Amino acid sequence: MGEDEEPPVRGLGLTSQCQQEKKLVSAVSVAVEAILAQFSSSRTAVQKALSGDSAVNPSLGRLVLQRLCPALHSLLTDGLKPHQSDLIAGRRPNSAWGLVQATTRPPKTQALFNLQVRVCELPQLRQSRQRFNAFLLGLLTKLLDFWLSHLQSCSVLDAHYHPGSFVRLSLTACRPLFEELLLVLQPLSLLTFNLDLLFQHHH
Prior knowledge:
The chain has about 200 residues and is mainly alpha-helical. Helices cover about 60% and strands about 5% of the residues.
């Protein structure tokens, strides 16, 4: 019980900056609760598996796309620099999808890299936001918390984010909040998802 109560207790000492970031984590929590509610009506293991299939249960796909994807996008674009400077490519726009590409380099993250390549190979997805959403749909096959945890250890964060961003602060002042985020997302890893990467395009 003590462990369950730890993040809120430590959260009381969050700085005013982290209080703003807490709203972003709360939005993710609300989206996760809505997704869990979709699965809770299923009685058997087969029904639960089918509940996570966007071809059989398109309402779940819409829920992920309209609630979870925007919440995570807001979290990960908080404090994101509008542009990046590159010695070869020069100045180029920054985006959540650019972050995905920068943090999914093999061999450490081969599964993430394979997913990123699959998304890139879908000609229907031309916009970076569409690709980011498709990547998140793919991450729900038990890779979401792995990517977020890996994100913290990436050397590219300084290049992508301002110091006051959620991701940068999650390494210091907002670390308890990041741990809370992982706890919020944990129940999703226990569910079976089979989401069409082109769900957004098809619907």
